[in-house]
Amino acid sequence: MEALPARVRAYVACVTVLGLLCPLSLVPSVPVFPPGGARFSWWAVALLAALYAGCERLARSRPVAAPHPGGTFHPVLLAGAFLLPPPAAALVALLGALPLPVEQRPYLARRLWRAGRLVLAVWAASRVHLAVGGRDAVADCDVPAALGTAGVAVLVFCLVLTLLDGGIPASAPGVLPRGRRLFLGALVPITVHGLAGLMMALLWRSPYGPVAALLVLLPMGVSWWAFAQYHRERAAHQATIRALVQAVDIKDGYTRGHSERVGRASMMIARELGMDDERVEVLRFAGILHDVGKLGVPTRLLTKNGPLTPEERRVIELHPEYGHEMVRGISFLGEARAAVLHHHERLDGTGYPYGLAGGQIPESARVVAVADAFDAMTSTRSYSRARPVPVALEELRRCAGAHFDPRMVTALVRAIGRAGWHPAVTADDTRPTPGDTRPAPDAPRPIAGAPGPAAGDIRPAADGTRSATGGMRPAAVPGPTAPAAGRPGTRR
């Protein structure tokens, strides 16, 4: 435990020592705790410990998030707490948890911490269960009484785990699994495991014996497999999105972090509008992937020195369609795909790529458009300083109804007013090297031969905001209206 701070080493050592003391009363010469007056068989301890270790190894072979770090299959442990005296139930946790491998350093500290916290929690749950008469209710197969006493034991089990996790010193975040989850949030999954453990205990004491008790694990295994499949699919989705965003960041380094911030702002708007969690997540994906179409734009255009020709501008403004082609086959994105295609549309019909107006623009695209504009105005780039948040919000209000949906603007204003804007990722560290006078790829640039703002001019265009809202529509794509000829735009 050399890599751990002294406070953490001391805390882990105390938990480990207390955990080792719990089963010692099984040794007659060392009566540390009273055995509880209940008889037990050593083979039951060995069977439950082996069963717990086997279930844990199976669970750890799948990418499943555990309700508590260090112990994912609580039904077997809780069944031991309902069936055995406290020292014997603690021994089940000790023998089952110690042999399990750990995947991160420091290995010894993590192994001892996992075993110690589980032993203490199981011992406390078993003590309380015995004190409230739960052992007799299980032995008599009195289901109503057994449910009540088991509920008290599960409550104690969850409380001890939460208190132990909360005792990891705040000065060493991330060193050990701290598990600072809210008690009520942790109680829900552990209660489900407690019901399964109680079913195991009742069947164990029934005429059918331990074999019937093991059958309880079959439906648990099926549900566990389904849960694992869900998490595996979700992990694949996240990996797909990360790969796309990283590819955009590599190609267009000046906008590094922009996608993540737009995703966060989109999520804030969606929550303020009262959307359900699943839709909030989809809109977060939409914000993260809104500029993925830049992968289809030649790098020489994104990094070109000097003004863009009208043809080059039209190529860059095809990036929403490129992005839609890239993500339209990813089914889990749902309405996020429409946001990728239409996030540069404007309510007055002057956006691109299709010149949609008003309600023709998908709601997801209207959310991302506001989030995109807000981050573009509040991010520091190599060519301009960030606008203060109040100034950017006022600009969004000014353009609401013409360029942006007023509902989305109002939602963002309310959300930021309540929670503030403190993005975890910024673009401040993407600064030009000394002597590099090249403007940023998304800086407002004049079109060759057409009047417009000079490179680096951050003043709003005559028809709306600056680089946040885009410029003319490309003539090369189909749409209900003709493009606005010669209007200066941006490289977004």
UniProtKB/TrEMBL annotation:
- Lineage, top-rank taxon, reads Bacteria
Q: SMART domains, from UniProt?
A: HDc
Q: Tell me yes or no: is Cytoplasm among this UniProt entry's keywords.
A: no
- Which residues lie within the region annotated Disordered? 423-492
Task: List membrane-spanning regions.
Answer: 12-34, 40-55, 76-98, 145-170, 182-204, 210-228
Which residue windows does the record flag with biased composition (Low complexity)? 432-463, 473-492
Presence of the UniProt keyword Ligase in the record: no
Query: Which regions form coiled coils?
Result: none
Q: Which residues form the HD domain?
A: 255-377
For this UniProt record, give its keywords in alphabetical order, as a comma-separated list.
Answer: Membrane, Transmembrane, Transmembrane helix
List, for all copies, the residue spans of the domain called HD-GYP: 233-428
Q: What is this protein called?
A: HD domain-containing phosphohydrolase
